[in-house]
Amino acid sequence: MAISATQVKELREKTGAGMMDCKTALIETNGDMEAAVDWLRAKGLSKAAKKAGRVAAEGLVGVAAAPGRAAVVEVNSETDFVARNETFQALVGGVAEAALEHGADREALAAARYPGRLHSVDDEIKEKVATIGEHLTLRRTAMLTAEPGVVGTYVHSAVAEGLGKIGVIVALESTGNADRLTALGRQIAMHIAAIGPLAVRPEELDPAVVARERAVYSEQARESGKPEAIIEKMVEGRVRKFYEESTLLKQPFVMNPDQTVEQAVKAVEAELGTPVSVKAFVVFKLGEGVDRGETLDFAAEVAAAAGAK
């Protein structure tokens, strides 16, 4: 099949590999972008194998918390200028507060009453579109609860209280002191924002993700020319390392790299004299996974239109 320059450019942006290597990878995989990423990884040509979803959207991530629960939302705008707008910041903060009452269902949140107003969250967003002059979108929402326990929070690149580019919430189940648990929860949330684990525990990893990693490791090991029995051991070793690198409790704790997150939690357990369990976490990174092909910048849109004439 014919491989377009756009496909090659997209793969290069995702992986950092050379243009010709990207073209070859796409040819070898019949234009399948994800398969081409894996092909480059297996050949040792990808410079950004673990790169997160490409960011194209602007706006803010908002976090709101109450005893035993916390919510995180993402509201997108067309330009990053809007994120500095106090009206927009107040909007996102209000949406996050509404999410605390209405949970993780986006449609239910959109239809719910906006705090302090008689109309819905969706209507409030539409009203602000007219005020701000840009298209605004409630993209997603999530909520965690811990009964008993706390939900720790952290916002990275904050522009105001609870508003920024990355929002993390992490649920800790325990009957221990709430203040101590909240402090631990914030530290773990900061770790998650910095390191980006895929799951809390190895058994909670997406089987499809594990299978994909195993396939890449197998291809890399076979290129060594070693016997099959040795290859199998090499692959299993790499998979174990993947578990350690990708799951929260197995990772070195950013607050104290001499201990794992699991060991840090155990230390707090001993301090409080009661079990502490990391139940779950949610991370929202602004614009993550949004197709960069969507034109969200007015200047770029005008330039593109002018170039097309």
Explain what the structure shows.
This protein is of the alpha+beta class and 309 residues long. Among the domains are: 1-51, Helicase, Ruva Protein, domain 3, CATH 1.10.8.10; 58-167, 2-Layer Sandwich (Tetrahydropterin Synthase, Chain A), CATH 3.30.479. Helix content is 46%, strand content 20%. It has eleven helices and nine strands. The protein has helices at residues 5-15, 19-28, 33-42, 86-102, 106-111, 121-132, 178-195, 207-222, 228-246, 261-272, 298-308; strands at 58-66, 69-77, 137-145, 149-156, 163-164, 166-173, 252-253, 256-260, 277-285. It has a four-stranded antiparallel beta sheet. It is flat and about 65 Å long. The two termini are 30 Å apart. The model is unreliable at 48-56 and 292-309 (pLDDT under 50).
* Total number of beta strands: 9
CATH fold name of the domain at 58-167, please?
Tetrahydropterin Synthase, Chain A
Shape: flat
CA-based gyration radius: 22 Å
Which structural class should the secondary elements be placed in?
alpha+beta
Query: Spans of 5+ residues with little confidence (pLDDT < 50)?
Result: 48-56, 292-309
Spatial order of strands in the largest sheet: 3-2-1-5
The major sheet is characterized as: 4 strands, antiparallel
State the CATH superfamily name of the domain at 58-167: Elongation factor Ts, dimerisation domain
Span of the ends, CA to CA = 30 Å
**The level-1 CATH class of the domain at 58-167:** Alpha Beta
What is the average per-residue confidence, as pLDDT, rounded to a whole number? 87
